[in-house]
Amino acid sequence: MAKHPVPKKKTSKARSSRRHSKFVQKEQKYLKDLVHLTKCPNCGAPKLMHHVCKECGKYKGRQVFDMNKKIEKITKIKA
Questions:
Q1: Is residue 63 part of a domain?
Q2: Helix (H/G/I), strand (E/B), else coil: 16
Q3: Cβ(53)–Cβ(47) below 8 Å
Q4: How confident is the model at residue 79 (pLDDT cuts 50, 70, 90)?
Q5: What φ, ψ does residue 13 adopt, rounded to 5°?
Q6: Domain limits at 50?
Q7: 57 CB contacts (<8 Å, ≥6 apart)?
Q8: What are phi and psi of 62, to 5 degrees?
Q9: Which of 4, 15, 40, 73 could cysteine-pair with 53, CB 3.0–4.6 Å?
Q10: What is the CA radius of gyration of the chain?
């Protein structure tokens, strides 16, 4: 039976949080490069690239969603 390596001393909170903070900073930098925001050509609101604008409901110059239409919420099941 092989023996597994065991740490000789407890890892302090400062050391573990320092290591965690570096990991978080690296992930934030990576994600910042992946998320691209652009201005909507119709209304000028920030939107994700290749997505429908949440403010005006347009995509590539055509109306996809009618933002003036009221959405009914289903509260009861009709029998």
A1: yes
A2: helix
A3: yes
A4: low
A5: -65, -40
A6: 37-67
A7: 63, 64, 65, 66, 67
A8: -120, 150
A9: 40
A10: 25
* Domain presence at residue 53: yes
Residue 29 within any structural domain of the chain? no
Q: Give just the sign of the alpha carbon dihedral 59, 61, 64, 66.
A: positive
pLDDT digits over 19-50, tens only?
899 888 888 888 777 778 889 998 899 888 89
Torsion of CA 33, 35, 39, 45, to 10 degrees: -140
Each residue of 15-25: b (16+ CB within 10 Å) or e?
eeeeeeeeeee
Both tokens of 74, joined, read 């289903």
Residue spans of alpha helices (H) in the chain: 13-34
Question: Token pair for residue 75?
Answer: 């509260």
The total of structural domains in the chain comes to 1
| Residue recorded with tokens 């990991």 | 23
